[in-house]
């Protein structure tokens, strides 16, 4: 890479991750694109600037299909490299062109604004039930504290996406454990990652087989898995391969709960440590949607996301990224880029006029299909949470909260809170 590579050593990515913001600031000070060494000694790059990332995400000479990364196929990268899970998966998130449009059209039908709005009563019902659980856990604790992560922020989106996919409750806990190990926890050993990936694919196959058997009995459900299977077994141009079916189910599961979990947790942390911003919502000078958008910008749920591959040597922000380089999208870095967001980019401000112009849902053809659902869930979660517990506060110093051991996901592993009195 050039020009930075000649004078600045490549940043070695820490598999254990941690809070990304200080690192982002250091790297961004050197330039909008940084050369990195990924775990496993694999050369790569990360795009850190807002405008540069926006350009890169929509560039016609940037692909998602791993066939455009020679090192994945010529022996340069080990077969057991844990990050292969992002490259080898088949689905709309690793497809380009007509294949991507075909797969996205199938999934997108479930995530239109109209379809998502129909889920509002169910999301509200789930949120209220989980807040009851949070209150009970706090009441049973001598300190009056409970883990909002475990009792509310995780089960809400997990239950919603599993109901959409038609996944039985018995599988949900294990699916979270496996998806977190495979996709989020970047400090796992190759053996652990590969074992979890195999089990996750097998479990998804078991779920798909059960839906396929139900369809054969004339008992097909109205869930997304059944719709994908119908396309899988159809004769029209939308037909999915078995790998595409499993890959799409896995994408929906992971993207449908891990990112929304982090979004909810990060928003609650931000509001509890910025009471002036919470007051703006309570005084109707801002909305819960404003909170969601500013959280997505200021402390987004995904930090550095793999992978895209330039199909030719590509100049981005004055730096040449060689053809075939595995490139990470630096969403948390772009969110605090002062060149775009202004000199106060590090400040949490829900009245910020550019709050809606973050890139946390991506940009271009691969813009997150589930964005409307994530917004709905996070908005309902925050509104119901602070209405039920107006005195809610953190039960531990923010600096002591255990951050995810990941450079991909951005969030904490637990969020102890004291709900305080209930408003009703």
From TrEMBL:
Q: Which domain of life is it from?
A: Bacteria
Known CDD domains for this protein? Answer: CYP107-like
GO molecular function terms listed in the Swiss-Prot or TrEMBL record = heme binding; iron ion binding; monooxygenase activity; oxidoreductase activity, acting on paired donors, with incorporation or reduction of molecular oxygen
**Family matches, as Pfam families:** p450 (PF00067)
Supply the alphabetized keyword list. Heme, Iron, Metal-binding, Monooxygenase, Oxidoreductase
Q: Which family would the database say this protein is a member of? A: Belongs to the cytochrome P450 family.
* Name by which UniProt lists this protein: Cytochrome P450
């Amino acid at each position: 890479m050039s020009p930075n590579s000649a004078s600045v050593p490549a940043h070695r990515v820490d598999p254990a991750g941690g809070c990304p913001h200080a690192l982002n600031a250091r790297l961004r000070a050197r330039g909008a694109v940084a050369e990195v060494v990924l775990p496993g000694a694999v050369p790569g790059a990360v795009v850190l600037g807002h405008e540069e990332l926006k350009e890169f995400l929509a560039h016609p000479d940037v692909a998602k299909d791993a066939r455009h990364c020679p090192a994945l196929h010529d022996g340069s990268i080990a077969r057991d490299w844990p990050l292969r899970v992002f490259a080898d998966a088949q689905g709309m998130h690793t497809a380009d062109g007509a294949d991507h449009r075909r797969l996205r059209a199938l999934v997108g039908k479930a995530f239109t604004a109209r379809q998502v709005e129909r889920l509002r009563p169910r999301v509200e019902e789930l949120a209220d039930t989980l807040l009851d659980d949070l209150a009970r856990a706090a009441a049973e604790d001598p300190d009056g504290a409970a883990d909002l992560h475990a009792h509310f922020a995780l089960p809400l989106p997990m239950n919603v996406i599993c109901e959409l996919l038609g996944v039985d409750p018995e599988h949900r806990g294990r699916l979270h454990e496996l998806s977190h190990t495979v996709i989020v926890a970047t400090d796992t050993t190759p053996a652990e990652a590969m074992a979890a990936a195999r089990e996750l694919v097998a479990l998804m196959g078991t779920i798909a087989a059960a839906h396929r058997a139900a369809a054969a009995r004339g008992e097909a459900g109205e869930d997304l898995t059944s719709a994908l299977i119908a396309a899988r077994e159809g004769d029209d141009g939308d037909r999915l391969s078995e790998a595409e079916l499993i890959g799409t189910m896995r994408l929906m599961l992971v993207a449908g709960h891990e990112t929304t979990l982090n979004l909810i947790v990060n928003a609650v942390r931000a509001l509890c440590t910025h009471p002036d911003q919470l007051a703006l919502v309570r005084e109707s000078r801002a909305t819960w949607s404003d909170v969601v958008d500013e959280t997505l910008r200021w402390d987004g749920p995904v930090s550095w996301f793999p992978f895209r591959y330039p199909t030719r040597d590509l100049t981005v922000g004055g730096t040449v990224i060689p053809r075939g380089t595995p490139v990470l999208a630096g969403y948390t870095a772009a969110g605090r880029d002062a060149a775009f967001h202004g000199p106060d980019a590090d400040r949490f401000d829900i009245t910020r006029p550019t709050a809606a112009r973050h890139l946390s849902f991506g940009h271009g053809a691969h813009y997150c299909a589930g964005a409307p659902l994530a917004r709905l869930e996070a908005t309902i979660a925050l509104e119901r949470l602070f209405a039920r517990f107006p005195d809610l506060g953190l039960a531990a110093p923010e600096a002591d909260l255990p951050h995810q051991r990941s450079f991909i996901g951005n969030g904490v592993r637990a969020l102890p809170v004291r709900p305080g009195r209930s408003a009703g």
